[in-house]
Request: fold
Amino acid sequence: MSGFVGHGRHDVVTADELTSVEDHLAALIDLLPRPDPIVLRLQDAMGLVLAETVTSHVSLPSFPNSAMDGYAVVAADLAGAAVDDPVHLPVIGEVVAGSAEVPSITPGRCVRIMTGAPLPVGADAVVPVETTSGDRGQIAFHRAYEAGANVRCVGEDLTPGQPLVAAGRRITPADVALLANAGETRVPCNPPPRVVVLSTGDELVPADDAPGPGMIRDGNGPMLAALVRQAGGTPFSGGIVRDDRKALMYALDSNLGHADLVVCSGGASAGTRDVLPDVIGALGEVTTAKVAMQPGMPQILGRIRDVPIVGLPGNPVSAFVSFEVFVRPALRTMQGRRDVARPRVRAVAVASMTSPPGKRSYLRVRLAHSDGRWTAAPTGAQGSHMVSSIALADGLAIVPEDVTEVPAGSQVDVQLLVD
Reply:
């Protein structure tokens, strides 16, 4: 059992005991593994980061084809065409998209052609049907066209050896279209991190159970799993684990085989039942930190058999904010994503905001945009147990360590909670 000792001092935590947010995040990043790339079907790779640059093995278009519904012609035949003095050509055939046999034409003739259809041999231009007149057998052309007009040439989009999608890019629907058109059906990607989520505490019951006296429902487990999924990871629920050394050892040991990261909530503070650091240390390595932030000061980092372990505070707001500040950037780093940090905006505080000295506060706010500026209004009471305050928030107002008050009407940085 961990110690439960007071020191008879005025301050709960002194400045020399605090770790900066940046240092704690850097320590977590240093623990992270770099998962090996996996080859996935193209339809399963959407949103993942490409591990290697994919180059084209084909030309696109692979054959010359029409960009219009109209008539394939020899451009020189139309040199003297005018609105009142058209050139008349006989139609000797028709070619549609998907035609296996491509007709040929000689000067003085034309072929009816549809968009995407192969260009007839001998033709070098396509005239849109809208600029012609006449019946189906004899067509009047009312203007001249240069060679190459409305013709899609071989390789004008892609050529063999041309890079298609660069390594490090997060695959978009447009990338999927490009790769599929080039015949690339499987691509190497950085896999989604597998994250085991554990909720610790003797007081917890599953969300679908009625809590008895002194008990509460576990909201952290479902919340953290949802945050993992939102950040691009694959969550695995380890359920609720009691504040018991053997139970915690078993839960950690039995989940390491399918985890790239383990995230625990609860057991990170100084209570007599907060045994998580001791358990992690017995199985591997562990450090505890008091981070200069509010909420979320007590934090745990560890590693067991090369799997990083993150211990977050048990209060729901503290767990939520800690995930946003530390775990989300870690998960995006593991994916090789460039957008590691959430976007920020500069907003005008609607109401006064306070912060303790020496700590960086993350206050839940609701953003609005009008008259060309953002405004930020607190979502209510900011206690670390106030789940409603995070449900109403779409941003975290960041008050620096050396600021204790943000007066109404002044500006504050807000980290968005949406992408």
